[in-house]
């Protein structure tokens, strides 16, 4: 109790020192009857505040409280309808996705297999991995994890109704999920594959390699 009293006294002293803090006062609205006098008094105060500052950006909010049914309140019938069909058509158009083949990036490491489908402009459309397929720890980099991740990617593509005419597969890494992801995807979209690229970084005369592991 002594510490609370000391903190309260320090706050009171600081409020006396700073004049700006004197304007903040706690106000409690209470009504002893059920006639709604408290609400009417609050509405009068808001109306006076609006008349004092008509240019305030809170004018619509004051109208919303003091004048029910004003322009600030919109019914469900007055709200504009938003059609998603136009947005979906634009997202499928070449102006958004661009011309050229889609790109399937297969990043197969010894810890995980990450699949990323992008548009011709490089925009990410869907992405899965061995972890999102439900595999944990070392199992994420296995053959079955890459296969299930590819099936999950195909399911996402079908949900988004992506019509892939041609695509370009880009490999990176030599993990065990490399061939599994390739075979599972080609089994569904085999006739649309136009190009294969191996983008695995290979050092040539670069930094000194790490010391060989001794077992």
UniProtKB/TrEMBL annotation:
HAMAP family: Ribosomal_uS11 (MF_01310). Residues 51-81 are annotated as: Disordered. Keywords: Ribonucleoprotein, Ribosomal protein. One of its GO terms (molecular function) is structural constituent of ribosome. One of its GO terms (cellular component) is ribonucleoprotein complex. Belongs to the universal ribosomal protein uS11 family. Residues 51-64 have a biased composition (Basic and acidic residues). InterPro entries: Ribosomal_uS11, Ribosomal_uS11_sf. Coiled coil: none annotated. Pfam families: Ribosomal_S11. It comes from the Eukaryota. This is Translational machinery component. GO terms for biological process: translation.
């Amino acid at each position: 109790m002594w510490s609370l009293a000391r903190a309260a006294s320090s706050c009171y002293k600081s409020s006396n020192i700073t004049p700006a803090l004197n304007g903040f006062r706690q106000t409690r609205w209470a009504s002893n009857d059920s006639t709604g006098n408290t609400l009417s008094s609050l509405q009068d105060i808001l109306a006076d505040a609006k008349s004092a500052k008509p240019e305030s950006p809170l004018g619509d909010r004051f109208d919303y409280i003091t004048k029910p049914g004003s322009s600030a309140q919109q019914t469900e019938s007055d709200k504009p309808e938003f059609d998603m069909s136009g947005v979906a058509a634009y997202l499928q158009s070449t102006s958004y996705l661009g011309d050229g083949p889609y790109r399937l990036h297969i990043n197969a490491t010894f810890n995980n297999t990450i699949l990323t489908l992008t548009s011709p402009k490089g925009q990410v459309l869907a992405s899965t991995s061995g972890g999102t397929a439900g595999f944990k720890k070392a199992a994420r980099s296995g053959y079955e994890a890459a296969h299930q991740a590819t099936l999950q990617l195909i399911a996402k593509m079908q949900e988004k109704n992506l019509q892939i005419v041609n695509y370009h597969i880009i490999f990176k890494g030599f993990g065990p999920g490399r061939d599994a992801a390739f075979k599972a995807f080609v089994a569904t979209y085999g006739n649309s594959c136009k190009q294969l690229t191996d983008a695995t970084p290979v050092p040539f005369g670069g930094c000194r390699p790490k010391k060989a592991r001794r077992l």
